[in-house]
Amino acid sequence: MAKVQNIKGMRDHLPQAMLLRQHILTVVQRVCERHGFDPLQTPVIEYAEVLEGKLGDDEKLIYRFEDHGGRSLALRYDQTVPLARVVAQYAGQLAFPWRRYAYGPSYRGERPARGRYREFYQFDADIVGSSSPLADAEIVALLSEALAELGFPDFVTLLNHRQVIGGIARASGLDEAAAGGVYRAIDKFDKLGASGVGEELVRMGVNTTATEQILALVQTEGSPATVLATLREHLAGDERAVAALDNLHAIIAALEAMGVPPERYRIAPRLARGLSYYTGLVFETITPHWPEGSLLGGGRYDELIGQFAGRAIPTVGLAFGLDRLHDVMEELGLGPRLNTTATAFVTIFGHDLAGEAMALASELRAGGVNTLLSLDPTQGLGKQFKEADRKSARYALVLGPDERDRGEVVIKDLRDGSQRSVARADVVAALTP
Ligand code: AMP
Known about the structure:
Layout: H1 15-34, E1 38-39, E2 45-47, H2 48-51, E3 64-66, E4 72-75, H3 80-90, E5 98-107, E6 119-128, H4 133-150, E7 156-161, H5 162-171, H6 176-187, H7 189-203, H8 208-218, H9 224-235, H10 239-257, E8 265-267, E9 281-286, E10 296-300, H11 306-309, E11 315-321, H12 322-332, E12 344-346, H13 354-366, E13 371-373, H14 381-390, E14 395-398, H15 401-406, E15 408-413, E16 419-423, H16 427-431
Bound molecules: adenosine monophosphate (AMP).
Adenosine monophosphate (AMP) is lined by residues 78, 108, 110, 115-117, 120, 122, 275, 294-297, 319, 321, 323-324.
Main location: cytoplasm
Family: Belongs to the class-II aminoacyl-tRNA synthetase family. HisZ subfamily.
GO biological process, one term: L-histidine biosynthetic process
């Protein structure tokens, strides 16, 4: 028989992993709803032309195929381009600014590695129809809240603006066409280091003086105020760069006012981010516990929706990579370690008492206690306890003839083996924390 296997880069998640994933999802969703974001769902498959021309170099990673009707289709690459399509298609029904969140799988033909998959789940949050720096700040505040609630001990969001890098390129004597190449080279900073990026710039034809200047500026470090001041000094004559610095300044001021702890964000002029649709703020959240790359990222894309809608609709958003959050949380032991959804396991004493056991299980479920019911009244209690233990239920419940006569139930705690009798009417309360 052929080996049974799934596709490389696409993962199965068994229950224990799923329970942690669902916890992550619940927390992120709760934080989004706390900020008044509403849910959106779009299909996993789009017309290929919807995705084409939006992703720059990454377009080669799109999964394409033809359906039975000969239509040219693609698996969604992210949830941003489908959002842009939705906004164009339903603009009349949406009240802007519109805050939406969406959760689901995205597909990229990447070379799989730890934290990099071909099918992965993204949780996106976007504010559509606002160019206010308060919208940018709210997205960063939201992610800071979500990661803190998930228990991440130290993470920091690196902030930059597309026109800061553009300004750095221009200040180094490069024309607009060359600026794109500079983004791409700088985007590899974490992978190649300063010297690697320098070599790449020189290979692109940037002279050594300009290369040195670019490298010095993109490595500017310090508090947001210090970094902004240094950049202002060097980019003073460049109108677009100055506007970008003003914008970053306003975003930082809003983050402060919103109470985001200052150690949670930093301006990093070297941050480029690969996707070509960003026009303003770009950001990535990193943690020393995940040196391989970013936990999540996002930015402002004021032009993308216009490609569908015919008019620009300014938008800012982010995508949490559920798989990365999951991998890092697993590694750091963050979040609950659950093996099952069930709290109670109701045993069946014998055929005569099967009906009582079923009624008890129904009462527990109605009372909000997640309950497994034994399926085999012919099995001895010992075997049923073993099954309850294997299923990781916390409690096994016994309702034998004596308990029935006394109107009681025995609750056995499978963690420590202790047991107690409880009046039938009090069982739900006894199992509810
Ligand atoms: P992007 O859509 O490229 O901006 O990515 C947003 C986030 O999605 C990243 O920060 C990751 O957390 C996650 N992500 C992107 N690509 C992958 C991948 N191939 N596998 C797992 N997670 C990914």
